[in-house]
Structures are given as structure tokens and as C-alpha cells.
Amino acid sequence: MTDYRAPIDEMRFVLSEVAGLGRVAALEPYAEATPELVEAVLEQAGRLAAEEIAPLNHPGDRTGSVFENGVVRTPEGFQRAYRHYVEGGWNALPFEPDWGGQGLPWALAIAVSEMWNSANMAFALCPLLTMGAVELLQAHGSAGQKSLYLSRLVSGEWTGTMNLTEPQAGSDVGALKTRAVPAGDGTYRITGQKIFITYGEHDLAENIVHMVLARTPDAPAGTKGISLFIVPKFLPDAEGRPGRRNDLRCASIEHKIGIKASPTCVMAYGDDGGATGFLVGQENRGMEYMFTMMNNARLAVGVQGVAIAERAYQQARDYARQRVQGRALGSRDPAPVAIIGHPDVRRTLLLMKSQTEAARALAYYTVASLDLAKAHPDPGEREHHRTDVVELLTPVVKSWCTDLGVEIASMGVQVHGGMGFIEETGAGQHYRDARINPIYEGTNGIQALDLVGRKIARLEGAPARAFAEEVRGFLRNGSDAGDDLPAIREAVGEGLAAFEAATDWLLESWARNPVEAATGASAYLRALGTLAGGWLLGRGAEAAARRLAEGDGGVGFLKAKIATARFYADAVLPQVGANAATAMRAADSTLALDEAWL
Amino acid sequence: MTDYRAPIDEMRFVLSEVAGLGRVAALEPYAEATPELVEAVLEQAGRLAAEEIAPLNHPGDRTGSVFENGVVRTPEGFQRAYRHYVEGGWNALPFEPDWGGQGLPWALAIAVSEMWNSANMAFALCPLLTMGAVELLQAHGSAGQKSLYLSRLVSGEWTGTMNLTEPQAGSDVGALKTRAVPAGDGTYRITGQKIFITYGEHDLAENIVHMVLARTPDAPAGTKGISLFIVPKFLPDAEGRPGRRNDLRCASIEHKIGIKASPTCVMAYGDDGGATGFLVGQENRGMEYMFTMMNNARLAVGVQGVAIAERAYQQARDYARQRVQGRALGSRDPAPVAIIGHPDVRRTLLLMKSQTEAARALAYYTVASLDLAKAHPDPGEREHHRTDVVELLTPVVKSWCTDLGVEIASMGVQVHGGMGFIEETGAGQHYRDARINPIYEGTNGIQALDLVGRKIARLEGAPARAFAEEVRGFLRNGSDAGDDLPAIREAVGEGLAAFEAATDWLLESWARNPVEAATGASAYLRALGTLAGGWLLGRGAEAAARRLAEGDGGVGFLKAKIATARFYADAVLPQVGANAATAMRAADSTLALDEAWL
């Protein structure tokens, strides 16, 4: 176990030079987000994450959350840390000021969220789910619902959950069976069982606001017959304080591979006749409402991938610095050296570092466009950021960043050698924790289908072409730093050509037969993510070269940004062509084998 | 949790059509290995693995081995299963008949070993370590040592361990400090601490024979001063039965990510003045002796990678067949279908299946050459199989197959969706168990360095050229089956060109600066493994096409072999070029970044 240190220089650099936080802060609603404020926010969040939340990660994994007699106890220290998190106002960062939010850009909030997740992903999940409830109510709640729930959820005083999944309804939400029957007084009686409810029960807050999908008696089948309800653990009393206990309970919690401190609950609604639920918006529009929340949640999960990669990287690098083993290759000196000096360990650390930075760049870049799509005065710009960036790249951030999280955590174990396989080191926890990210909030396979179906084929490739134009803009730029930027541009250019060929194939094959196109979806997504990461690292390198030429400070850091981008171009970008080729070549052979012979 | 079923048809096919077991059985020492006997061995081993050993895998993971008061208790059922394993003569399969072995080919033994490891890797580790002790004593033990220990180890009545690692001496074995002082009576007093000793203490056998590396008082520094000792838990009495307890003990066992049923022990030697050890061979030649065992152990660990991939694949496939979720893409029928019908799940299963079969093909092919290298009457053939196949490919089997084991186990979790993250499913156990394989028996990074340093550069590329010639032979063959074999040949040919370019680069850069070449070692190894797997699947497809043309039975199976090879060619072989490019391009940028900025 080693300490976590928030990579504040890196975050600031990515926000300003890659994500373009300056453009966001230039918009009227975000005028407060000055460089000084950004600095202060990152510093203070980094302190709380490093000093209080991170030290709870490993012990929390050992004990896990515990379920006894219907009560869930989170690990020691979680209550105190959550209190400090709420008291610091951290939960309110990106929300609307009307309800106590600070109204700061999502781009900044996501950097702060990365810190909580690096520090302790199991802890950070609780606010992540609350965020979903806030977004739902901000967008679709009635005035009364907002005044009762929003300020308490924004502050974090109460927490929120998302109740979608049932045993027969996972990826296919439309198959859910939980029932909501009008009680005659405007409320509904909710009965049914929900599974995989993150922080469905816990001891961190005095009330838990469950957002529950259910069907009214005459609802149509499938996703068109789903309604959304607020089902609080304690019904608010006249003063809005937690009053009568609602008819819902946690039936059990899961025994999971990772994020063990985070209780994953089976929730039973209506054992005694029906939990009281309050309809959000109109009946049968629940799925539509849920999607307003889901896209942001997918970005947040993508950032969890970045976060766990960062933590695994820091730990592996620190171990490699202190672990002395073996002499230097090609040296006559028999004295053993720190393993960070061995070429293969260095290569592994650079793969970890460069891909973590590429994933972070893509995530922050996409989230900054979320702010621009929301607040830009020009409708055309809003539309561009929404369609060509946020919608196109959300499934990529979710899948590519979380697949990388798993792969980088696995490399982190490997750098530790035998010690990596021993739980006390902590490297294994990241490997176990990271594995949930490609699964929840829409499996990565579903993200890939969303990308090729809704974001590419449905729009006849327009967002992919807009993306390619952005990349070509980078290729046309003339500035360079030695031979690094030209080499990066060449590798990005190779990748772009492969990506464009794959896009053409995709459009054509989708028109012919969507099943065929879908076989290549995951490889296509991987190609896009890898290319986008290389391009954004390249833009970072360009900015670093410019700042170096201008005699800006932080020479070591700026040179490292260029060197890391160059490594990624050399070592990682060749995968774009391979993934594009796989997507284009393997459709027939994916479908050829008789299912009985799988 | 699902059942394990030994893939006997596949194993027989790979043994006969890819590994060339016929050539091995044609050799005089292996005349017994008739097709009938091979069939019977696979059938019977498959039964024991599936019916008795596999069902212990998941419960064994839950309880783990338990350490209390110096005693290790293995999970319930392990004792009985191990007794049946010994009584069935399974431990003796590949060993010399002089000591009770059955003298069957290693190629057959490795298929059987795959079954034990698929069934229960934590259980199978105990015989795997015993095998190492047998090989050491067969090759280097005195007549007296052989008569005292060998027959009991060959039968499995006693088990063996390998004691190399110490806290400061992991990959760098030469740094070990355990001392061996002559006692004056021909024995030695052993004192020191060893860590990571697999099955160092347990309750499966009446005696444990520790093979311990230690230094005599005047030994030179480093690996040249290491001697090998037999240090039995109980000193054999006059009748060769376990007598006096030796001065050694298990001090603790590790709390690991996976293979929890397998006790990983800290061993303390000589707390009461010194454990009695018996020198094997001569002083200071311990490392040399250890290497006779280590190469086979590396192949065995590679097969563990195949085994866990097979188990994860079977489980994911069976789950995908029974899990019903979502409608078929592009269909108007709203009825939900089994997820095996969804294109991305199919793709994932095919990646699992085709890469598992490719890895198996490479492992069996390499091990068959081990038999040929040992028993072929022609010295030139022996030398060819030893140098161009076994030595070249051993690090590839170890690394590539175990990296695939991790990746395929990870895909297996993903196919399960949310259920994959819940321990009761069992998918997560494979993900956790698989993670040790790239680490132990020489980390995969060390294997890659062994490949490029000793097997390529030192021999000026000769084995790589011989390998390329074999592949070219396949490319020149004319037989085909529709357009599959031509397409496979084209993809293998592309991969071969990239591999040969990378080999040229490697030889040149090693001559210039080994550190530079070493940065590309892992990517080069991955390229070689991926290519070799595609080539051997292609040979299998060729054989399947021939047998189909001859009207041989098993049409469905043979067609599946061709379809699987074709999928691999389309979906996986493009990676060869990417990995070769990475190896060639990234040397400078791997070394460029100042270490302080990692």
C-alpha cells in the first residue's frame, strides 16, 4: 500500500490545454471558474482525497460493508469521511445554485470526482449515485419534489440511488416487473424486488432517496411502459425531515470481487402492502427521464476507469522505485538496482502512464463539451458540442477508459511481481475493483452498439466526420518540438486513415445488415478511443512545446508531456490499424460458426 | 458456477494433427502411446477432473487453506481427491519407469495436466511442484537419493516443493542468503527463511520433500555460489518411512488474490540449530540443476494459462446459452433471446475460444518437441527440436499463454454482466486465479528478455529463421477449403513479414545496445505468440479440411476447427503487425523520459 497523491499539475494542464476549460469559463454561467478558483478547488479536494478518503480504501476492502438484521454498516471511517465530504460542500460542486449547488463547470467537477475515485472507488460510488438522483429531479421533478428533496441531495445530506435492475431485467430494462399501483391519494404503492442497488442501504446519511423504475397496471409492454418514482426510505414529514419509515428494506448484500466497501443491495419494496412512491413527471416516460441521467453517469464511470488507472499507476511506480532487484542490463556493475531501471518495467510503467493520461484527456475533453453544449450562447455551437463530441464520445469514454482501467490495474499487479498477488500490497484490490467498470451503467458491448448504431449509422457518419476534421486540424498545424511532434502527427495520421476506412465500412455494412456491422462495434470503438487519446495527447504535446518555447515554467513537466505523447504514438497508436482491420475483416467469420459448436 | 467438461475431442485433435503425437509415438520409448491408450487416458483423466476435482474449485476458493498452530489444512475434499489422484497413478504419467513412472510422452501428460488445472488450479499446483522435484532428482540425484525419494515422489505418495525465493531474492535468485553449513557427517545444516513456497506445508501427504537453494560458507557471490539441497519435512528412517521431524516449519501463509486453496507458505529453516539437508550433485551448481527443471515448469505454467482460459470459456459460453436478455438485433420479434445470439457476445466468445485453442496448439506443439528432443534417434533432429522449438518457444508458451489466460478470464467475467462480479458465479475466481500465472516461474517480462537475449540475439536469429521456414512451409501448401485457408494463409503471411522485420530490427538493435532491444522484448514476444498461434490453427484447419475431404467423421467439429482458425486470422492476427511495429518504434521513446518524471 502506498499513498495517493492527486495529480494536480496534470489535471490543471489537461483542463486548460486539452479540454479547453478557458472556453468554458468564458461563458457567463461559469464566470466564477477562474484559474485561481480552479487551483484552489483542486488543491483542497486533493487534500481531502489523499489525507482522509484514500487511507480508508484498503481497510474498507478488508472488512467490506456488513449486512446484519436489515442494517448495513459501512467500514470504519466512512461515516466521518462522508461527513467531511458533505461539510466541505463537495457534493454540490456542479449543481444548480437554486438548490444550493455551486454551479461550477462539469469539467472541473469531473476532475474532482476522479480524485474521490482514485482515493477510494467504493466510497466515491455513493455520491456518484446521488448525482444521478439530483440530475433526474433537476430536470423532471415537480416544484414540490424539488423543494422537498433537491437541496438535501445537492448538499449530500441525503443520498440517492438508481433502481433499474431486476433478476430478469439487466441490460434489457424493459423487462422489469416491479409494480406501481395508484393509491388514490396521488401516491403509488410500489411492490417488487430490485437487485444490484449500489448503496441501497447504508449508515452514511439520515435518509436515502430511491429513484425506482416500475410499471403502472395498464402500462404498455417494454420500455414504453416504465414510470419513474421517488421512493424515500423515510417519508419526509411536514418540516421535510425524515418521518415515517417507508415499506422497503434491504434483503441482502452481494459478495463481490471488488468494491467490497460499497454495499450492493437486493431491495424489497412493498412486503407490507406497498412502499409509498411519488411519480416523477408523467407515467410511462420513466426511461426517457432515466436517459437524461444515464449519459452523465456513463461519463462518470469512464472517469472511474481513469481514476483506478491513476491509482494503480502511482502505486506501481512507487513500488518500482523502491524495490531493488537484479543488476542493470548490459552493465558490468553487479550491484542490484531499483526495478524502475529495467527496460521492461519502464515500458510497462509508460504504457500505464501514457494510456492513463490519454484516457483522462478524452474524458475531460468530452465533459468540457458537456458544459459548452449546455451553456454556449450560439445554438449551432451547442448542437455541435452535443452531437459531435458529447454524444459521439460518451460511449467511448465509458468503454475505452474502463477497459484501460482493467488493463492498467493488471499491469500494476505485474510490476509488483509476487507481491502483487498478495492482498496486503493493495495492487490486487485495484485489479478487482476495476473489473466492475466495464460492466455497470451499460456494459461496454452495449456502449459499442450505441456508438455504431445511434452515433454513427443513424447520423450517416456525420459526427465521425466532424471528429476526423478536428483531428485533421491538428495534423495541419506546423509547430513542432524536435522530431517528436512530426512523429506524433504521422502516427495519428496513420490511425486516422484506418479509422476513416473503418467508418466507411461500418456505414456500408450497417445499411446492408446491422448484425454484421455490430460484430465490429467493439473493435471500432477501441480504434476510435485509441486514436482520440493519441490526438489529444498530441494536442497536449503541442501546447507543452509552445509553453516551453515561451519560456514558461515547469520545464520538466512540459517535457514529460511531450515524451509521454511520443511514447504513446510509438507504442500504442499502431493498435488503431489493427483494431480497424479486425472490425472490417471479422464480420463474416464472427457469424459463420454454428452456435452449437461454440 | 457451471460444470467443467474436459475438451477431449479438441485435445485429441491438437495432439494428433497439430502437435504430431504420431511422430512421438513412433519413437521406441513411446511405443505404448497408441491412439487407443491416448483415448483411454484422456477419457479417464477427464472423468476424475470433472467429477471429483472440479467441484472442489469454488468451495476451495471460499474457505481457502487455513493455517493454525503451524498446521495447514487444505479445504474439505482435497485429501480424498488427492488420494484418488495418487491411486489412479496420475502423478506417474510422464516419469521414468525405473522409479514407477509410466514413461508416457510429455505431450500426453501436458493434456492431462491441462485438465487438472482447468478443474482446479489451486489443487493442481501441488502435483506441479512435485513434478519439479522429480525432474531434479531424476537428473541430478545420487543413487541413494533416488532410491529413497524418487518412487515416493513419482507416485505422489510424498509431495515436493521448490524453495528459491527470499524477501530480497525474487527474480534475482542470486541474492539469496539461506545458509548451508556442513555438519561433518555428509549432511548440511540449513538455516534461513524462504517465501512464496507453494504447498510448503499441507495435509495431503505424509511427507514433503523440500528442494532448497542455499549457500555454503565459502560460496562465491551471486548465482555461482548456490547449492541445491533435499530437505525433507520428516527424515526418512531405515525403512525409508517418514521418521524424525526435521528442523523446519511453516511460519505463515499468504492472503492472496487467487488460488486461495493452495497454501503459499513462509518457511523457516533451522530455528533449532539447522534443518538437515542433503546436497544434490555438487556444491555451487544448484542454479544449473534448477534450470533443468525450470524450463519444463515454465511450459507447465503456460498450460495453466490455457487451462484457466478453457474453464473461463466453458463457463461464459454456458452462461450465454442460458441467460435470456434483450431481443435479437434487427429483428421485429420482441421476444427476448439467449445472449449468445447477440453479435458482441458471440464475438467475445469467439475471441475466448479461438485464442484458447491457439494457445493450446502452441503449448502442445512445443511439448511434443520436448519428447522428440529427448528420444529422437537422430542427433540432428534432437538438436533441432531442442533449439528451434523447445528453447525458442518455452518463454512464449509461458508468457503468451498466461497473458491470454488473464485476458480471457476477464472476458469471461464480462460475458456474465453484473453476475460476473458476484463471487457465487465463479467467473470472478478465474479472473483472480489467472493473475498469478504471468508472475510466477519467472515473470513474463523476464521470459521476454530470455527470448530476445538468449534465444534470438545470442544465436544470431537462427531459431527465429527456422521457425519462419516452418511457417513458410504452411504458406506454400496448396490445399484449401473454400476461401478460408487462402484467407488464413494471407493473414499468416502478413504476420510473418512483420515478425521477420521485427527480428531483423531486434538483432541489429541488440548488437548496438541491448537495453534498446529489451524495450521491445514483450511486444516482440506477443507478436511471435500471436503469429505462431495463427499458424498452428491454420495447420489444424488444413488437417480438418483434409479429413472432411476424405469423408472422415466429426463433420461439425472439423468445420468448427476451420471456422475458428478463420476467425482468429481475421480478428486476432492483425495484432501481429501492431506488436511488431511497437517493438520497432518505441525503443527511443521508452528510454527518453527522465525517470523523475515517471
From TrEMBL, chains A, B:
* Coiled-coil residues: none
Catalytic activity reported: 3-(methylsulfanyl)propanoyl-CoA + oxidized [electron-transfer flavoprotein] + H(+) = 3-(methylsulfanyl)acryloyl-CoA + reduced [electron-transfer flavoprotein]
Q: Which residues form the Acyl-CoA dehydrogenase/oxidase N-terminal domain?
A: 39-157
Q: Per its Swiss-Prot or TrEMBL entry, what cofactor is needed?
A: FAD
Location of the Acyl-CoA oxidase/dehydrogenase middle domain: 162-267
Q: Does the keyword Oxidoreductase feature in the UniProt annotation?
A: yes
Q: Which family does it belong to?
A: Belongs to the acyl-CoA dehydrogenase family.
Q: What does this protein do?
A: Involved in the assimilation of dimethylsulphoniopropionate (DMSP), an important compound in the fixation of carbon in marine phytoplankton, by mediating the conversion of 3-(methylthio)propanoyl-CoA (MMPA-CoA) to 3-(methylthio)acryloyl-CoA (MTA-CoA).
Protein name from the UniProt record? 3-methylmercaptopropionyl-CoA dehydrogenase
